[in-house]
Amino acid sequence: MSDRTPAIASRLPQVGTTIFTVMSALAQECGAVNLGQGFPDFNCDPALVDHVTDAMREGLNQYPPMTGVPVLRERVAEKIAALYGRRYDAASEITITAGATQAILTTVLCCVHPGDEVIVLEPCYDSYGPSIALAGGRIVRVPLTPGRFRPDFERIAAALTPRTRLMIINSPHNPSATVWTAAEMQRLAELLAPTEVLLLSDEVYEHMVFDGQPHVSASSIPALAARCFVVSSFGKTYHVTGWKVGTVAAPAALTAEFRKVHQFNVFTVNTPVQHALARYLASPAPYRELAAFYQRKRDLFRAGLAGTRLRALPSEGSYFQLVDYSAVSSLPEAEFCQWLTREIGVAAIPLSVFYEGGFEQGLARLCFAKRDETLQAALQRLARL
Q1: Left, alpha or beta for 230 (phi > 0: left; psi -120 to 50: alpha)?
Q2: The dihedral sign for the CA sequence 117, 119, 122, 123
Q3: Which is nearest to 238 in space by CA: 92, 369, 66?
Q4: pLDDT tens-digit series, residues 299-329
Q5: Which band of pLDDT confidence, cut at 50, 70 and 90, is reported for residue 350?
Q6: pLDDT(233) > 90
């Protein structure tokens, strides 16, 4: 008899510990201000917590429908109709998910078959590649324009082949904080119109768009909405990232396939939290006020950065800020971020990790979804650069 553990052939042999885990651990070890990982360090509205408590006490603690609590799906459909002009059927076209990452994985698994190609625009959120790999798909990486991070439609067009099954876009964009314009979304619609390519539009930062610029949802453009899974996140919108609740809106035929996978990889989502979100979503004020809330933090942070040797790139949306550190150091991005954490006491994320194989531009990503005192503490340290 042997107690040997059998070997396992990894489904994701290239995946190790994420940079976010590494940098957060380093920040804690060094007592650094953590502007690396993208989550708030402040609490949500107490009324939202009260709604969860109320739902629990009312006995709403058993399995909800696989597709999500009906009243929450209806509220989501109403919000999308009010903001973007498309009315999704709550019963057949809205699904509640265990966060946006599960929504992305489930979307990929439901429509990508082994050998299918998926176009991803780099730099990109780190779950896209592994999701495609798990489905047996082939990742086709198309870079956004360096420095400006706009879609390069000539390169996108060149990447489209008969094997292309899905394209993933993200606006407002993590990590670059750029926002797609209406003209760019319309150009994408024209490019995809003669194809059978499906679209996944990652819109988790939809309510964080600044300077009066609108968020142009894929759901607002009929030619895109007809082929699109639109992903959003209550965690980002309501400062409750640990609740892990998201949504997917898609035409009924696409939703039917999505739900076939959803029911077997998560089945359903926390019942009292869904009821709480439905009650909170009855008022549009919290999400309508979010852009102003984060724009004030962005402006405070950018004003402080102006007193450092870091050069802030435009931040049009999300709660991220890219900085060019070329006036400070010639170190590669990962080394610079480790040095910044150890020596200056501020943790950041190297932009290069959002590219396959890395791509050095002398840029780092900072998160300003923090209390004002956290941002001020970070800025005081960055002023020593």
Answers
A1: beta
A2: negative
A3: 369
A4: 999 999 999 999 999 999 999 999 999 999 9
A5: very high
A6: yes
Q: Which residues, in sequence order, are bridge partners of residue 247?
A: 96, 232
Q: How far is CA 247 from CA 62, 122, 151, 230, in A?
A: 20, 24, 25, 8
* Joined tokens for residue 337: 């971020």
The whole-angstrom separation of Cα 122 and Cα 111 is 21
The neighbouring-strand residues paired with 317 are 209
Q: What percent of the chain has pLDDT over 90?
A: 94
Q: Are 71 and 227 in contact (CB under 8 A)?
A: no
Q: Which two tokens stand for residue 115?
A: 């050998």
Tell me if residue 357 falls in helix, strand or coil: coil
**Domains of the chain by residue range:** 19-38+288-382, 46-282
H helix or E strand, kind and range, residue 90 = helix 90-93
CA atoms within 13 A on the CB side of 18: 11
Q: Which of 361, 210, 214 is nearest to 300 (CA)?
A: 210
CB 104 within 8 A of CB 231: yes
pLDDT (tens digit per residue) in 56-110: 999 999 999 999 999 999 999 999 999 999 999 999 999 999 999 999 999 999 9
Write the class of the CATH domain 46-282.
alpha beta
CATH for 19-38+288-382 (1.20.1740.10, 3.20.20.60, 1.10.10.60, 3.90.1150.10): 3.90.1150.10
Beta-strand pair 320-324/246-249: unpaired
CA atoms of 259 and 96, how far apart (whole Å): 10
Question: Backbone phi, then psi, for 271, in 5-degree steps?
Answer: -65, -55
| Positions of E strands within 63-176 | 94-97, 117-122, 138-143, 164-170
